[in-house]
Amino acid sequence: VLAALTMLNVHAIEQNPKYANARDHFRSAQFSKAAAGFRALCTSKNDADACYWAGLSYEKLADSATPLGCRIDAKAHNYFVMAIKLSPTDPVYRDALFSFLLDNSDCSRTALREAAAILSATLQSDPERASMSERLETARRLNGSADERLARFLLILPRATYRIAPRRSTNDCESAARRNLSSVTALAGVPGRDRV
Questions:
Q1: CA torsion 137→84→50→112, rounded to 10°?
Q2: Per residue in 31-80, pLDDT tens?
Q3: How far apart, in Å, are the Cα atoms of 78 and each of 71, 136, 159?
Q4: Burial of 67 (0-12, 13-18, 19+ CB in 10 A)
Q5: Burial (Cβ within 10 Å: 0-12, 13-18, ≥19) of residue 17
């Protein structure tokens, strides 16, 4: 993520303080605020970089809601796809979506098929193609393992309950994640970590 932060377009940040503000929220792990800032830039300016960063922000939000973050993961997916549509030749956006699909295949039945489509669209001469192919095969093996199938089965009821529950804003989700983290660290007796 730090490497990706350095890739933010410095010129665009200097021209638009909203970029800097959203970037600062991302750096300080305020992912819902970062997502909102990048989302606004993505949709208002058709900015591929802002869409990419909105996707990363939503991905981080979903990580804090694991294993119930699939709804937020869907938002991340949409913004990664928008970044690719706006800048189809940028390998950074392609690689971000590809990695996202492999990492979140438990939330989507079509994630590995979509990752395979990205791989097949990647030129044979692309230096990342061999690595992408290997990562996809590893994800397929892991996704088909007995442990993974059991984990998906055990999460059916909690995820279904989460899907039909009233939707909360991402700020509510972030606050809940912070409360959960605070209570876990307090129970574990970690000194000085009672507030996040």
A1: -30
A2: 999 999 999 999 998 999 999 999 999 999 888 876 666 788 889 999 99
A3: 11, 20, 20
A4: middle
A5: exposed
Condensed to tens digits (0 to 9), the pLDDT of residues 101-148 reads: 998 877 777 888 999 999 988 888 998 999 998 998 888 887 765 655
Long-range contacts of range 43-49, CB-CB < 8 Å, 24 or more positions apart?
46/86, 47/12, 47/86, 48/82, 48/83, 48/84, 48/86, 48/87, 48/90, 48/93, 49/8, 49/9, 49/12, 49/83
Helix, strand, coil % in the chain, rounded to nearest 5: 75, 0, 25
Is-contact 42 54, C-beta < 8 A? yes
| DSSP code for 47 | -
Contact 49, 9 (CB under 8 A): yes
**Considering only CA atoms, which of 20, 16, 17 is closest in space to residue 28?**
20
